[in-house]
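step 3/5: co-fold with alpha-D-glucopyranose
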Amino acid sequence: MDNDRPLKILYLSAEVVPFAKTGGLADVAGSLPKAIHSLGHDIRVAMPRYGRIDPLKFDLKEVLPPFPIPMDRQTEEVSVLQGQLAPEIPVYLVENTKYYDRDGIYMYPDDAERFILFCRSALEMTHRLDWRPDVIHCNDWHTAIVPNWLKTVYHDDPFFAHTASVYTIHNLAYQGVFGYRVLEIAGIAEYGFMYHPEMADLAEVVDFMARGIYFADAINTVSETYAREILTPECGEKLDPILRDRSDRLFGIVNGIDYEVMNPATDPYIARTFDADHLDLRVNNKLALQQEAGLDVDASVPLTGIVSRLTDQKGFDILGNVIDHLLDLNLQVVVLGTGDPHYHEMFSRLSQTYPGRAVVFLTFNAALAQKIYAGSDMFLMPSRFEPCGLGQMLAMRYGSVPIVRSTGGLADTVCDWDPRTGVGNGFSFERYDRWALFAAIVRALENYRYPETWRKLQVNGMTADFSWQASARKYVELYRRAMSNQTSERTVQAEASAEQ
Ligand code: GLC
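step 4/5: write tokens
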């Protein structure tokens, strides 16, 4: 095979910045394709056209008028609109009023059907556009059915005879588990449930994530450490047996961040732009943030930022257990995010109890997020588990020093400060325990008292490379590996049937 040939890649995601976002998946889907395109490949993105995506705002144009998609022994009509991620990167938005014209993105009772329809439409769309992908890159459970289809209903379709699949696990905790009916809806009932000697559940439910892992030609997660962690029963979310079976084709590729959009030297949202050589200017952002957020305006008080989904994964239970002790120290906290009502209450109580010192914004707001990265001194991510985590990298890019639990991608990107060598870009702790977190924060506060030390920590973070450059190359290698796995599997099958 020609190893330098530019590839055609169809990138499938349920959410893509700037069109729709609930979490880090959307950031990745909005930035990785640009980096892959810059390596010379024809990558195109597809997602559903949710009701909130305004066709006028994004200048969407219809590229395919309504056409039928097989669904549950009938057909469903969809059309396809086209927008752009960048001038040469089309984004195809699958339109269907019944399934997507709603306020939100997920959490509907018919989510399985909604994403089955989206995936099937994306495959059928490539046919109609006569654009044959070398690789279909699927992300998380919403698009995990595609590798399954390529090996079943589309197996004998000549159009996809040389199409390989790659499956990226962004978060093993969300698997998409449904009942038998979805096999009928997806047109694969004749193949039945999956069987695995160590996973009895699979004979009774349809787990989309498990199917992606089982059928894809290559698999990856979003950091090397998480790729190792999920092979264990502790972190495997019950899928570790199947992941161990597939470990020969499972890799870890750490996410990058969008260096163009997220740049403190050009960011239009922040009060004062700056870079590693002009760190003195940064304090203006802290003062502006304190002012805007309603915190006491004081440059000397250490300001801690949190920008996150407010869920158990992110370690807010251990934080909740020590936060009052923390606020007894000289420190301010600003929180931005949405999630479980339980954490909404916890943080709201804090801002009422500690006016001027703790403040919470229960929403998502990109501009405010950037002001927090640029204005906070420290950035907190005490995650229970973290496949990659983007907040810590964004914080470092903007000179805010991360305090993290050493797990998954946090372990791969944050290096604990060592005062003897001057190496390190943050503070990390191992045990998932409130006092371990408390000790890491106290250590950070101690170091904050020494401006020289602190500056070194900031510069170490700001000058590290968290761009997509290196990781995009690894994805291209993964694509080629998936293609060669697909080809050899086909060859083995052809030889076997010739012998019969
Ligand atoms: C999920 C993970 C997060 C990761 C992101 C993008 O949101 O929880 O760790 O950074 O996906 O891959």
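step 5/5: annotate
The mean pLDDT is 96.
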